[in-house]
Amino acid sequence: MSAGAAASGQLAAVPEQFAAAPEQLAAARELVAAAGWLVLFTGAGVSAESGIATFREAQTGLWSRFDAQALATEEGFRKDPELVWGWYAHRRRLAQQAQPNAAHLAAAQYEARGGRISVITQNVDGLHRRAGSGDVLELHGSLLRARCVDCATPAHDGWQDDPGARVPCRRCGAPLRPDVVWFGEALSETALQRAGQLARGGELMLVVGTSALVYPAAGLPLAAHEAGVPLIVINPEPTPLDALAQHCLRARAGEALPVLLAELPRR
Ligand code: BJW
Ligand code: ZN
């Protein structure tokens, strides 16, 4: 289905691969239709159809081409801030140029039609919000923000216009860094707590486009499962969560979500 069809709220056509597993799709739709509060837990795969690279896929994943230690740790940043800023400025531009796809739009439209859906995303591209979702928790920060590497003060207005963000922190003079969560760094305690509440409190969790390998984020579907919240996994590839899920749809996010979220709960 096109993004336009999703945006206009038309009922989604059933993608071809589901023709082989119509019962599975029907059962997954039943589960969605019976849930009054959905929690959508997303990873890089949900933005893949917007042209944004994932991290761990062979050949195309960012970590198959770039050194995570050099680019996604504070140590790497302190060693070579220009290199790190160059990479993040490039990715920020790609994210800004990208458009929300049918998956982002399906979630936003579900909410716009009155459905209750909380988005917990590991993505830093801002596409869930741009699609129109209102209840979005960005666990790993945002490419679109910067903060001081030492005192965490948010960047001054206009920081994006400065190539390499060489302008120092307005409070302490230290360099600015992208406001994302790098390896070895703690996630915001508030965000993590809220995410835990959502994970355990929702009626159904849709786990979409994540390898579910990076912790503590990957612990959220586990927490949901332990709290008795059913999981539906949507991913073209197997994930460690598949064995725990009620249903695994081997499909792309932009195909499956518009079908699953086409109708509001019956009650
Ligand atoms: C589609 C699709 C389509 C394709 N439709 N699907 C236990 C063991 C070992 C290590 C650790 C451990 N616990 C913690 C760690 C360390 C580390 C970690 O988890 N490492 C693992 C890799 C093992 N975790 C951390 O360091 C975290 N911090 C921490 O633990 O702090 C401890 C601490 C506590 C207190 C004080 C101080 C410290 C922080 C993790 C931060 C992760 N950051 C990144 C970069 C963000 C900034 C940036 O973008 O540059 O976040 S790494 C990267 O991975 C990014 C993502 O959000 C995250 C998750 O990746 P995601 O989204 O799952 O993407 P992929 O590529 O892995 O998967 C894509 C999936 O999509 C695939 O399955 C495809 O099949 C699928 N797909 N097309 C649907 N169309
Ligand atoms: Zn500072």
Explain the overall architecture.
By secondary structure, the chain is α/β, with parallel strands linked by helices. The chain is built from 12 helices and 8 strands. The protein has a 6-stranded parallel beta sheet, sandwiched between helices. It is elongated. Ligand BJW is lined by residues 43-45, 48-49, 54-57, 61, 72, 122, 124, 140, 180-186, 209-211, 213-215, 234-237, 239, 252-253.
- The proportion of strand residues reads 5-15%
State the end-to-end CA separation: 27 Å
Q: What is the percent of helical residues?
A: 25-40%
Mean pLDDT: 92
* Major sheet: arrangement of strands: 3-2-1-6-7-8
Low-confidence stretches: 1-9
**What structural class do you assign from the helix and strand content?**
alpha/beta
Topology pattern, helix = H, strand = E:
HHEHHHHHHEHEEEHEHEEH
Main beta sheet: 6 strands, parallel
Query: How many DSSP E strands?
Result: 8
> Which shape, going by the Cα principal axes?
elongated
| Ligands and ions found | ligand BJW, zinc ion
Please work out how many helical segments DSSP would assign: 12
Features:
single chain, 267 residues, alpha/beta, six-stranded parallel beta sheet, two-stranded antiparallel sheet, 8 strands, disordered N terminus, binds ligand BJW, binds zinc ion
SSE topology:
Blueprint: H1 3-7, H2 22-34, E1 38-42, H3 45-48, H4 62-65, H5 68-71, H6 74-79, H7 81-97, H8 102-112, E2 117-121, H9 127-131, E3 136-138, E4 141-148, E5 176-180, H10 189-201, E6 204-208, H11 219-226, E7 231-234, E8 247-249, H12 253-260
Helix pairs in contact: 8-12, 10-11
Bound molecules: ligand BJW and zinc ion.
